[in-house]
Amino acid sequence: MHYVSTRGESPAAGFSAALLAGLAPDGGLYVPAAWPRLAVADFDGCTSLAQVAERLIAPFAAGDELAGQLGAIAADAFTFPAPLVPVAGAGYSVLELFHGPTAAFKDFGARFLAACLTRLRAADARPLEILVATSGDTGGAVAAAFHRRPGIRVAVLFPRGLVSPAQAQQLTCWGENVQAFEVRGSFDDCQRLVKAAFVDPQLRAHLDLSSANSINLGRLLPQAAYHAATALAVWRAEGRAPSFVIPSGNLGNALACVWARHVGLPIGDIVLAHNANRAVADHLAGKPWQPRRSIATLASAMDVGAPSNMERLQALFPALPDLQTAVTADVVDDGAIRRRIADDYRAYGAIWCPHTATAAEVMARMPAERRARGPWIIAATAHPAKFREIVEPLIGRDVPVPESLAQLYERPSASTALEPRLDALRAALLPAAAAGEGGA
């Protein structure tokens, strides 16, 4: 299997090379040069998430040095469940993706990528520098997954004042090989800096750069695995293909579901649930594609005005009518998010984070005839305890804190302020690289 850039100006790369590079040299995103095809029967005997992941990702790594290690990599990464939980009285189920170390769906992809990159690093190689831009959950998951990994350093860029207190703690509590940068700007500024770093000659000359954002294939493919495992379970139980409503920001989670369906998994409709950052929804409604500045909302991890993975969606569906057939989208404002959190707690006893509430609101608005074509699943992308300051006043009770989060809250935190300029990032990274040459 080989991978090509969405921009068509870089040479093809193998699976490991694409994971190590993160972004293609021309600034594009890697996509398969040819798509594998899988059938439900190909997953016979796969009863665990790790087994489904190994089988799903195998053709994407065909011929690569990691191909024979996928079973061990998946076993390392998928050590926590992704249960499908029916919501009594609501007419849909929830795919709970928040049972990992940092209580967000990003844990799946971050841990898989960390397991891959650790195996690819030669003992005598200079450190690999992971750059990650985050609107909240990605950075914490990446920091946790790569913390103390030998031969790897992590730089996490997050927008100052635009993540929840719990998210900020998760981003800044690691130290050692993980450094957190508070960027004086938006997530879009963080993402722009990371992309600029990858094509900066000076940084590339001094650092072995890679990315752990959803621009990296090593994040996307394991996320496709839990969509695949869930779809297979529903198909085997009911003989029907489930449809998904997915909270969407940078589009990695939704794209992973699209890719799972594209290779043959039994998945029906895919609906993108956006907050007030509506660039994707507007385009799907027929407007020209126009990335824009992000808007701060209660669902902060989805505050993305220029989602990177739109480039991959458009590569797969170059014609707008085809894209409109592949996915649909709806937009939810903060007022509706608040009401949905309160209403669904009263109606079902469900406690949503603001991102999951965005999907629940889209589900509630759905016409009855479309709902009847279910079964429907909404993706619960983060534990509500990460947003206690929002959720608790709306439901009138404390939100239980998972032990994994409670432990992180006890750690000391530290971060470095950073102006949203490439020269500032370069100055922050290069001294650290020079001092750490030859060390882990």
Brief summary:
By secondary structure, the chain is α/β, with parallel strands linked by helices. The protein is built from 19 helices and 13 strands. Residues 433-440 have low confidence and may be disordered.
Tell me what you see in this structure:
- The chain is globular, with a radius of gyration of 20 Å.
- 43% of the residues lie in helices and 14% in strands.
- Strand 5, helix 5 and strand 6 form a beta-alpha-beta unit.
- It is of the alpha/beta class.
- The chain is built from 19 helices and 13 strands.
- The strands form three sheets. A six-stranded mixed β-sheet has the order 3-4-12-9-10-11, sandwiched between helices. Strands 8-5-6-7-13 form a five-stranded parallel β-sheet, with helices on both faces. It has a two-stranded antiparallel sheet with strand order 1-2.
